[in-house]
């Protein structure tokens, strides 16, 4: 993305002027080019190579098969449209328009973030609930009971987002600093990489929409299965597209943070697509599953508290499971995938070990809001997209309004996440580079101060809990003595 002319938080990130290095021809050349600097040795096992090639083959195969399926469904839908209650001229234009709107909204959000990242971060956390609630109200206005029920779900989701935004308000300042530091000087040609990714996501989504419309025209049980398959393919492909950016841009950004050198994002993207798709496909499969499981466990822990001994012991067990899962697959592993050409599971394990070896860093990463910012941004783009098509369908054909609005929301969400993947990639690279050399002069005091702050808060909570436990024991002793 374009370099901002000034940034108060990022003024101390780079101590020396970056040195431009020529693009390598392969990952091995990339490692050798970094003179004699030591880095983790990587030994590709036979099993690791097998799974990388397997997932790469599965991904390319599903792209081919889904493309054939979409073509067949589209042709069949257009042929049978005259004999069923399906009107292509009323169904396709609103949804295709919403896909285009999602691309425009994603690009617009880039401009807003570049102009003022601090305000963009804060605005996201109040704009997303408002837009989500608007989608819910729109669905309620459609009139049917099913539409009203799903609309109510959107309203509850909006309320949940609002409560979460209030809960995390104290963390805004640190998130603003870390995002500003990480994205202050993006790699060269980052803008081209982001623009290409958004265009590919929009074109691919529009292509899949034609197949969904073809399956909708007949509405058999088999067609419902086809629609589900197409949506699953969309989700996986968008995850891969997003994580390709994570690997490519974090690869270039890591070199800058760790060694003060400048790496071209476009060349990093070329190497990523050519050599690392297998690991990216594995990560794109594991990370969403692990994030969902870990998020559910953390929610259970928050609700359980320490009021009930059975629930507390169960929460403690769930926490140990979450701690093990995070070492199997996490988004920070993509940095080592791109930098050291590691397998994804090995990269995830190594990066998390580095975080745990640096006192307090793991808690800092857990409290970081970058992933929440990207999620809320995706929801905002999805809501804008669904409002566009929902209002259109509400005016011309209510029968299609619900399904088309939901499709638009899903597509808009993924396009929004692809558009902001570069921001998350920069933050990932910053944390990983810091964990490998916390004493480096290229890093300022932002993370150490955050570690100190969290340690003080933790000590304060521990003292408060001890006082409460002591007070409860005194009350119990007084009651026993009275009896």
Description:
- A two-stranded parallel ribbon has the order 1-2.
- The relative contact order is 0.15.
- The protein is mainly α and 483 residues long.
- The chain has helices at 27-33, 46-80, 88-115, 117-142, 145-167, 172-183, 190-216, 221-259, 265-275, 277-304, 309-328, 333-340, 344-357, 361-367, 370-396, 401-419, 421-436, 446-482; strands at 19-20, 261-262.
- It starts with 18 loop residues before the first strand and ends with a helix.
- It has one domain.
- The longest helix has 39 residues, at 221-259.
- The radius of gyration is 25 Å and the shape is globular.
- The chain has 18 helices and two strands.
Feature tags:
single chain, 483 residues, mainly alpha, two-stranded parallel sheet
- For the biggest β-sheet, the strand order reads 1-2
Please trace the helix and strand order, writing H or E for each element: EHHHHHHHHEHHHHHHHHHH
Put simply, the count of helices is 18
Tally the beta strands. Answer: 2
Say what oligomer this is: single chain
Average of pLDDT:
84
Instruction: Please give the radius of gyration in angstroms.
Output: 25 Å
Helix fraction by DSSP (H/I, runs of at least 4): over 70%
Determine the N-to-C terminus distance. Answer: 73 Å
Content of β-strand: under 5%
Q: Summarize the main sheet.
A: 2 strands, parallel
Biased composition (Polar residues): 1-23
Transmembrane segments: 58-79, 91-113, 125-146, 152-172, 193-212, 373-395, 407-433
GO molecular function: transmembrane transporter activity
Main location: membrane
């Amino acid at each position: 993305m374009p370099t901002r002319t000034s940034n108060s938080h990022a003024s101390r990130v780079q101590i020396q002027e970056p040195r431009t290095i020529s693009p390598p021809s392969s990952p091995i050349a990339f490692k050798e080019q970094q003179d004699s600097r030591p880095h983790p040795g990587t030994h590709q096992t036979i099993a690791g190579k097998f799974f990388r090639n397997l997932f790469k083959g599965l991904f390319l195969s599903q792209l081919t098969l889904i493309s054939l399926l979409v073509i067949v469904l589209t042709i069949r839908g257009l042929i049978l449209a005259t004999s069923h209650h399906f009107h292509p001229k009323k169904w396709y234009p609103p949804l295709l328009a919403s896909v285009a709107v999602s691309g425009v909204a994603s690009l617009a959000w880039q401009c807003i973030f570049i102009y003022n990242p601090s305000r963009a971060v804060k605005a996201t956390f109040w704009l997303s609930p408002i837009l989500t609630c608007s989608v819910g109200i729109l669905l309620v206005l459609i009139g049917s009971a099913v539409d009203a029920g799903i609309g109510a779900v959107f309203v509850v989701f909006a309320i949940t987002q609002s409560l979460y935004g209030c809960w995390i308000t104290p963390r805004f300042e640190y998130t603003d600093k870390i995002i500003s530091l990480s994205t202050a000087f993006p790699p060269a040609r980052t803008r081209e990489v982001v623009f290409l990714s958004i265009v590919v996501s929009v074109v691919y989504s529009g292509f899949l929409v034609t197949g969904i419309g073809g399956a909708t025209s007949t509405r058999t049980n088999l067609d419902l299965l086809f629609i589900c398959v197409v949506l699953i393919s969309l989700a996986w492909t968008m995850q891969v597209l997003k994580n390709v950016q994570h690997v490519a841009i974090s690869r270039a950004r890591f070199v800058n943070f760790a060694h003060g050198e400048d790496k071209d994002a476009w060349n990093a993207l070329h190497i990523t697509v050519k050599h690392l798709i297998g690991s990216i496909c594995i990560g794109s499969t594991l990370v969403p599953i692990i994030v969902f499981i870990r998020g559910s466990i953390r929610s259970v822990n928050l609700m359980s508290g320490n009021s009930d001994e059975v629930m507390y012991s169960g929460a403690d067990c769930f926490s140990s499971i979450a701690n093990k899962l995070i070492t199997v697959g996490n988004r920070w592993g993509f940095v080592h995938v791109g930098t050291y050409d590691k397998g994804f599971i090995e990269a995830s394990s190594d990066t998390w070990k580095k975080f745990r070896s640096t006192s307090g860093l793991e808690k800092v990463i857990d409290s970081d809001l970058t992933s929440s910012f990207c999620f809320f941004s995706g929801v905002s783009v999805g809501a804008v997209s669904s409002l566009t098509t929902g209002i259109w369908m509400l005016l011309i054909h209510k029968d299609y309004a619900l399904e088309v609005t939901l499709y638009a929301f899903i597509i808009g969400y993924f396009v929004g996440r692809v558009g902001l993947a570069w921001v998350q990639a920069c933050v990932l690279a910053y944390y990983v580079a810091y964990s490998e050399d916390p004493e480096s002069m290229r890093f300022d005091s932002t993370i150490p101060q955050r570690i100190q702050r969290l340690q003080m808060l933790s000590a304060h909570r521990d003292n408060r809990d001890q006082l409460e436990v002591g007070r409860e024991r005194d009350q119990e002793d007084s009651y026993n003595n009275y009896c």
